[in-house]
UniProtKB/TrEMBL annotation, chains A, B:
Keywords: DNA-binding, Transcription, Transcription regulation. It comes from Streptomyces bungoensis. This is TetR family transcriptional regulator. Gene3D superfamilies: Tetracycline Repressor, domain 2. Pfam families: TetR_C_46, TetR_N. Residues 35-54 bind DNA. InterPro entries: DesT_TetR_C (IPR054129), Homeodomain-like_sf (IPR009057), HTH-type_TetR-like_transc_reg (IPR050109), HTH_TetR (IPR001647), Tet_transcr_reg_TetR-rel_C_sf (IPR036271). One of its GO terms (molecular function) is transcription cis-regulatory region binding.
Length: 215, 215
């Protein structure tokens, strides 16, 4: 093993330790109040090393957002097995989502609260992840609608709106669940299924809710 | 009419003109890019007068958030008539919400996007409004559950979660609808009713969605 390789390995490991510490401090203190001193101390490294590896507080925060966004998206995707019935896929996806946000409250705070509160650049990082999740949910609903057969031509706009509603509801519930002691990930997922599934299910069966005075 | 009174009246009117201009510029340019010069010009007043009345860019933005939050909350409350069936109340409330956000896209951008992206102080202003709306929706769901009789003891935690889900879905849909040309307020409200009502309705009738393997 050459000198370059032995140097590289510790750097990758140390960077992850720095990111672990940074997510925790950013998530708990908030972006503004978080200090590079505390992050370095928490990671067990010197502050100059944090700057050497991650450049600046802004770049460190961006790296945190990217890592947490990729991990959350991967967790949701891993939770869903294509081929199962649509409500089962949705249930599995929601459980994976709420389990991840419950187990990583600091990561969720970075993504949902901190990243959106401290400037348009950070907010844009999260918007990219959100678009990917909305696209994933849209596809799930389209497949479910085709499966249901009765309304295979559910308009694209309606499906896009439903996916936006579902993702917005999930984001809101995850933040609420993390702030509500004793609320489990499974309970949060069940609440959203109760809220959403019968509605989506009826819609796909061609039984939309009808406004007073007709559609 | 004394001198004091004639002076006061124009000030109140001028302040509203400044706020109108500021909401438009903040909503369209974003908080950082918005300039006090452009806001003053758009309001048809001098820049020193804006500073005299509203003190600073930060205070002007806070005043915008407060005015828009109060107007949105009032619009939703005014749209709902107590005493009607629960689904009608929800439909009326959602239509009022989406009509307001569609007619005031700059105000909605200030509340949902700008205020949450530029610091914890502004975000806290919006959080207060959001809590009021969640409380309003929670009450609506509690009343509906009592009306339905079959499940009068729907747990408080479940109701609170449902209200969070509904508000999160509505926020997400309003932002999406404003970015989707041709999507009307009525369509957005109907999408959310389709998503939510049958689910809520089934739940209140004591027919929750059942997870695989039982509850």
């Amino acid at each position: 093993m050459g000198a370059v390789k032995t140097k590289r390995m510790p750097r990758a490991v140390r960077e992850q330790q720095m990111l672990d510490a940074a997510v925790q401090i950013f998530g708990q203190r908030g972006y503004m109040a978080a200090s590079m001193d505390e992050i370095a101390e928490h990671a067990g490294v010197s502050k100059p090393l944090v700057y050497l590896y991650l450049n600046s507080k802004e770049d460190l925060f961006t790296a945190c957002i990217r890592r947490e966004a990729a991990a959350l998206t991967a967790a949701v995707r891993a939770g869903v097995r294509p081929g199962l019935p649509a409500d089962r896929q949705l249930w599995d996806g929601l459980r994976a989502f709420f389990a991840y946000t419950a187990e990583h409250p600091d990561g969720w705070s970075v993504l949902h609260l901190q990243a959106r509160t401290h400037g348009e650049g950070f907010a844009a990082e999260v918007a990219t992840m959100r678009e990917e999740i909305v696209a994933f949910v849209t596809e799930l609903i389209v497949v479910a609608a085709r499966e249901a057969h009765r309304d295979p031509d559910l308009p694209r706009r309606e499906v896009a709106g439903l996916a936006e509603a579902l993702v917005g509801a999930a984001e809101s519930l995850a933040t609420w669940a993390n702030a509500s002691p004793g609320t489990t990930a499974r309970q949060a997922a069940a609440t959203l299924m109760n809220f959403a599934w019968a509605g989506l299910g009826d819609l796909m069966d061609g039984r939309p809710w009808t406004p007073p005075g007709g559609p």
